[in-house]
Design goal:
This protein has 480 residues and is α+β, with helices and mostly antiparallel strands. Helix content is 46%, strand content 10%. The protein has 16 helices and ten strands. α3 packs across α5 and α12 runs antiparallel to α13. The structure holds heme C (5 copies). The site of one heme C has 24 residues, from α7, α8 and α9.
Amino acid sequence: MAEQKQESPGVPEKLKENGEMTWQEQVGLSLKTPMGLLGIGLTTICFTMTVLGLLGHMTGLIENHYAAIVTFLVFPSGAVFGLLLIPVSCYFRRKKWFRDNINKGNVTIDFGKKNHRRTVMLFLVLSVVNLAVFSLVIYEAYHFTESDYFCGAICHTVMDPEYTAYQRSPHAKVGCVSCHIGSGAEWYVKAKLSGLRQVKAVLDGSYSTPIPAPVEHLRPAQDTCEACHWPEKFYGKKVKQFVSYTNDDQENPEIQEISLHIGGRNPLTDNFEGIHWHVSGNIKVEYEALNDKRTSIGRVKVTKPSGVTEEYFPGGDESATGEGGKWRTMDCIDCHNRPTHVYEDLEQKVDFGLYSKKINPTIPGIREDSLTVLTKEYASRDEAKEQIVETLLSLQAERNGQDFVAENEATLVSSGAYLLEAYLGNVWPKMNVTWGTYKGHNGHQNEEDGYGCFRCHDDEHQTSFGKTIPQNCDLCHDEP
Ligand code: HEC
Ligand code: HEC
Ligand code: HEC
Ligand code: HEC
Ligand code: HEC
């Protein structure tokens, strides 16, 4: 006996004597290996923490988002890992026992025995509890990883520009996922896979700055925008007002009002017309993008409801089109490319300050100085916070003298505060995001950079019959 014990020290005394031992005693014993104990410990701790965390989140006691990561991702993973360790440790221990020739009959479940029944019941009850808790965790984790907070703020530095611009847009209450990710399991997996790649990029710093605009990865506009806005719904005109000043006249704005032909279905002819004609009815407008930003457009093809197609060539030259352009069907994003990540225009922002008197327009030279202050390069947002007001004061001191600055300090400081706010809403030096980094296509303010309607409406895209995509000023808007 003593010899046997040496051969297999793991086999309990009792088992050796009569070969009898209840199976749950055996399971119990097989747990008592270092691996088994680790599994039990890990599971118990992680499971308890998960349950506490879940309760905290569901009752609203815990609102911290980092706690959510731990509750929904870290602790449950720990619990599952621990649970897996237990059968693994049992497997190894029992394998050893079988090698030592114990009677296999001893390790079967016998429902005739009361203690066997009790243990099986316990196992079932624990499993149901486990399942319930894990389903809750998965449900909550799913929602958490779909939340705007998760998308917008977890990778704080990287997403800060988009998240900031988003929060002040008309879509601030529309979830990131409703534009960027489709619904359903397929999109979920797709998004989480690319999410993992992005997490890796954040960890090793290999992400691009600025982050490129992802048109090709966006869901098709029919699935996103059109869930809330549909072309049938557009009608009439939309009046927009543009206020601008010049450095020479900071007090009398030039106010331009235009009335945009939003379009829609004309009740008389039943045809679609106006600006939303491109995306309405059965019209299909396709174009050949000659670069990634789609700021240079080759051929344009229009397919009418009757099936008739018209093709426009740049400069009317049918042979001049470059090879390798990417064809794309025009949708909402081709005009509304910044529906929610709306960065402001530098001059418009300063002029709005003057108009709303947040920048005091009676201070000589303040428009020019404001533009200088905002376009100056600061190493970081923190540095901007320290320097913006100071910079404005010193520019003003140069221009109007130290006495003037001393007399008007309060109003200069509050104008400076407006500029700082403007800066913080639009510039992220670390991400290389600054004024004009992301430009919009919905108009023609940035036409010299190839943005906007005039990419096509240049009077130069022509069909073989000489018909052009027109640029006449009253096609898209007139005076209200
Ligand atoms: C109303 C729809 C919509 C919502 C909501 C939305 N996005 Fe976007 N997002 C877009 C579009 C459209 C683009 C492409 C812009 C372009 O092509 O110029 C984009 C681009 C981006 C980019 C690429 C960089 C850039 O600015 O072009 C990032 C990053 C991004 N979104 C993150 C987010 C995050 C994070 C949220 C939620 C906090 C969010 N988005 C919510 C429509 C949306
Ligand atoms: C979940 C619903 C929803 C989705 C999806 C959505 N929008 Fe909107 N959108 C709204 C609401 C609500 C408003 C009105 C906000 C307001 O009146 O201030 C709005 C307003 C707008 C406006 C007018 C903005 C303004 O300044 O008046 C435009 C343009 C617009 N959306 C375009 C889009 C585009 C393009 C997409 C797809 C990329 C999109 N929307 C996706 C709900 C949505
Ligand atoms: C050819 C360019 C173009 C396309 C394509 C386009 N829009 Fe517009 N849309 C405009 C312009 C221009 C305006 C008016 C200016 C503004 O509101 O900023 C406008 C206005 C809007 C408005 C505000 C309407 C109002 O009455 O205030 C919504 C909402 C909108 N578009 C949604 C969409 C959706 C959804 C799609 C895709 C189905 C789409 N647009 C496609 C150019 C376009
Ligand atoms: C990809 C090329 C392309 C872009 C970009 C584009 N358009 Fe067009 N647009 C066309 C074509 C092609 C026509 C049809 C010309 C024709 O048949 O007379 C057209 C026609 C129109 C019409 C007349 C529709 C009607 O029949 O009533 C309006 C209005 C219009 N566009 C406004 C805009 C506005 C506003 C923008 C920018 C926000 C814009 N377009 C951007 C290609 C484009
Ligand atoms: C293809 C359509 C289209 C044509 C053609 C067009 N515009 Fe516009 N225009 C727009 C749109 C869309 C906006 C609104 C931009 C916005 O909402 O920010 C606009 C805005 C403007 C503004 C106010 C914003 C600014 O840039 O100061 C002026 C001024 C203007 N247009 C002048 C003209 C003149 C002059 C012509 C004739 C050469 C013309 N437009 C032709 C679509 C057009």
